[in-house]
Structures are given as structure tokens and as C-alpha cells.
Design a protein that fits this description.
The chain has a two-stranded parallel sheet. Strands 2-3 form a two-stranded antiparallel ribbon. It starts with 10 loop residues before the first helix and ends with a helix. It is an alpha+beta fold and about 110 residues long. The chain has one domain. About 15% of the residues are buried. It contains three helices and four strands; from the N terminus they run αβββαβα. The longest helix has 21 residues.
Length: about 110
């Protein structure tokens, strides 16, 4: 699995806005029977990886835990794949073959 670390604190807000926009766009385009595609020129793996630092004081057995907890969250490509109604076509562009393979397995 290729590592995909991207964005900052603002990324979650941006992706929530992207999700809302894509749903509205697909709903409108579907209503009028248009053919429409989702194009992502920097698709990556389709997910983003973040690490959160656990507060050692809140853990029951801190010696058994890695203080950095890894989370995988949907990126824009995977969000687009979840949108209903679905797009007629998806075009994902990714230069890194390992990341493209991860996305293809979605």
C-alpha cells in the first residue's frame, strides 16, 4: 500500500465541502439526463493518512501503545465514488504507479 499523507487541519472541512458539492452537482446533472464525468488529476490512492498523537495519560496501558495512531480517511477520489447518483464516468489521473494501483483496487 502506497503512503498518502496530504493536507492539514483544513483538509477535512474542504473534503466535506467537496462531498456536498459533488452530491448537488450529480443530482442536478442526473435530473436533466446529462452525461457527466468526475475527473481527478491528482487522484493519489483515494484515501489520506493521518497520525494523531494519543494523550499518554488517558491510556490504560501506555507501554503497549504506539503514541501515534494512524487513521485512513477518504480522499476526494473515494468520496466521488460514493456519491449518489453516480457519475457516468470516472477519470483518475495518477503518475505514481503504486498509488494508482491502490486506487484501482477500490
Amino acid at each position: 500500500m502506497a503512503k498518502q499523507v496530504f493536507g492539514g487541519n483544513w483538509t477535512e472541512d474542504k473534503l466535506n465541502r467537496v462531498r456536498k458539492y459533488l452530491v448537488a452537482y450529480a443530482t442536478i446533472m442526473n435530473k436533466y439526463n446529462f452525461n457527466y464525468a468526475y475527473i481527478d488529476a491528482f487522484a493519489g490512492t483515494g484515501y489520506r493518512e493521518i497520525k494523531e498523537i494519543e494523550d499518554k495519560d488517558t491510556l490504560l496501558f501506555p507501554e503497549f501503545y504506539d503514541l501515534a495512531v494512524q487513521k485512513f480517511l477518504d480522499g476526494s477520489a473515494r468520496i466521488a465514488l460514493q456519491v449518489k447518483p453516480s457519475f457516468n464516468k470516472y477519470i483518475f489521473i495518477e503518475k505514481n504507479q503504486s498509488k494508482a494501483s491502490d486506487l484501482k483496487s477500490t
